[in-house]
Specification:
The protein is built from ten helices and six strands. By secondary structure, it is α/β, with parallel strands linked by helices. It has a single domain, classed as Rossmann fold (3-Layer(aba) Sandwich). Strands 3-2-1-4-6-5 form a six-stranded mixed beta sheet. Helix 3 links the parallel strand 2 and strand 3.
């Protein structure tokens, strides 16, 4: 476990330096969904907080959608047991989706509502950064989706500056780390799973799941696929594009 976690922290440290994610005096709000990625991110930030040459602090926030399957209290307890400040945001997502007739495609609306609530909490707590648990497989998946849908050569950026005054900068400290490494660390850390989504079956059959599995399938043929994709995403040859 120690080697895997050290490697994961190395990836996070590299991303923090390369993209200037974290500076002294930063107060970071971490989106804690209850899944493995966000829990592992909290452990990584705690490690970086202790060893990095920059002085920063962080707090966790969980968006409680009101589903019986979702245990926001358990997520809060996990964080507080480890000395991490935690906040819970409540919103009746099921009711909103039902009223707006979005139950067949809930993710887009839910994502917008979550992000808006987290931005508001950042302002309330004085947090200038919002950290999300997306990893490199998420970035690769988003790139393939954007490419195949004709939406351009784009993906989730490691750092997203605020578009409106008062909003936080969004950072993704795990952006360079493969999901497989995060999964191994989660298993070693005995990370629980508290953030079950009512619509998880739809997530398992949607486009994002298809393209995520496509990344794994391509990697069977090209073992260095993720490293190659990372280099390609950082190297745009404009003269060789339309």
């Amino acid at each position: 476990m120690a080697d895997d976690f050290s490697e994961l922290c190395r990836f996070a440290g590299l991303a923090a330096v390369e993209y200037r994610m974290i500076a002294s005096g930063d107060r970071i709000l971490v989106g804690a969904s209850g899944g493995k990625d966000s829990f592992v991110l909290l452990h990584v930030l705690e490690h970086l907080r202790q060893v990095a040459p920059v002085d920063f602090s962080f707090a966790a926030a969980t968006f409680d959608p009101g589903y019986p399957e979702f245990s926001a209290d358990a997520i809060a307890g996990y964080c507080r047991d480890r000395g991490w400040e935690h906040h819970t945001l409540h919103l009746d997502i099921a009711g909103i989706l039902r009223d707006k007739d979005w139950e067949k495609s809930p993710c887009v609306l839910c994502s917008r509502l979550r992000r808006g609530k987290l931005y508001g909490l950042c302002r309330e707590l004085g947090c200038n950064k919002l950290a999300l648990g997306h990893h490199f497989d998420d970035l690769a998946t988003s790139f393939l989706m954007s490419l195949c849908r004709g939406q351009g050569l784009s993906t989730m950026a490691p750092v997203v500056p605020p578009k409106s005054p008062g909003n936080p900068t969004v950072i993704r400290p795990l952006a360079l780390a493969p999901e497989s490494l995060i999964a191994r660390c989660a298993e070693a850390l005995k990370i629980p799973r508290y953030g079950l989504c009512r619509y998880r079956e739809q997530l398992s059959t949607g486009d994002r799941r298809y393209f995520r599995e496509l990344v794994d399938k391509l990697a069977e043929r090209i073992p260095d696929l993720r490293a190659n994709l990372r280099r390609s995403l950082a190297r745009v040859e404009k003269d060789h594009l339309l």
